[in-house]
Structure formats: structure tokens, C-alpha cells
Amino acid sequence: MTAIDQAAARRATDQVPSIPRDQDGPVFREPWEAQAFAMALALHERGVFTWPEWAATLGDEIKRAQAAGDPDTGETYYLHWLAALERLVAEKGVTSRETLHRTKHAWEHACDRTPHGKPIELRDEDFH
């Protein structure tokens, strides 16, 4: 599981009130949600974006999803979080949308060839 800086997590939940949380802080249904949360915290701490920029981008992604039929039950929150993260890193020049797209498809290819329960490893051929 991803270790999360608790002070940074508190600052994030103060600045982005929609983050699912309990009395102890943010809550996650799956490990990838915690990892996406931690990536956003790390990029914010490095000055890639401000919390107001993040909140605006996340809000835009949620509105897009709702317009496309997302039921807004809370179960898809971190999908919107991930979409906002991908959008901001591309807009800020951290990476390109093309690189994100290529890497996503490489992971999908690697997942398809990996037996259940085995670690997924990216190989050069996954990118072709």
C-alpha cells in the first residue's frame, strides 16, 4: 500500500472538501485510489499545481462525467480524480497525453499476458 503523508493529506482534505473521508482522513476502496491520491499530493507539494487549480480541474472532470451519465454515487470519485491528474500533468507539461495513452495501453497489454496473481511487469514489447 502507498504510504501517505498525513499532514499533506489533511491539507488536501481542507482544500478539496469533496475527498471521501472519515474521522481519520481520506478513505479508499482500492489501492490504486490511494496511489492516485498520493501522486496528486506529491505533485502539489512539488508545485506542479495549486489546490484551487486542482479543485477546478476535478470539478470539471466530475461535471463531464455527470453529463455523460455518471450516476454520481461516489463510487467513481477516484476515476474523476485520475482523469483530473492526467489532465493537469499533460497541461503542465509534466508528460504528454500521447505518453499517458501509450503507457495505459502498455499496462493493459501487460495485464492481458500476466497470469492472475502474478506481478505485472512492463516490457518493451508492451509499448508496441
TrEMBL record:
Domain of life assignment: Bacteria
Protein name per UniProt: Nitrile hydratase accessory protein
Membrane-spanning intervals of the chain: none
Every Nitrile hydratase beta subunit-like N-terminal domain range: 19-107
Region of interest (Disordered), ranges: 1-26
Alphabetical list of NCBIfam families matching this protein: nitrile_acc
Pfam families the record matches: NHase_beta_N
